[in-house]
Specification:
mainly alpha; 5 helices; Recoverin, domain 1
Length: about 110
Amino acid sequence: MSKRDDLIALYAKELKEKAGVTADMDLLKKVTIGCGPSIYNRDAASVSCSQASELETVKKNFLIKKLGLKDDAKLDAAIKEVCEQLGSSNRNKYRAMFYYLLAVKFKKQAIYK
């Protein structure tokens, strides 16, 4: 298996264990590919829920630009929900998992089809 395939398997396992979500593997793979090379960089591969600038980047670059959502309070609330869903004690809030959960929450899976 490639390194990317290994990471996708890890993300699916983490989603199941940490968030209680059985991943749609096709969607998870496409979201992971959409993250580009950031998944291989230790710092960029995860989302820090304690950094406001990081969460703003997720909102602007993913929710608004990629998913085409309008900037409103719902976006901030959804990001907070995903942070809580993945657990505050979980240090590995992988970007691909985070984006996967947000795409599902806003029913934007079709963007990855």
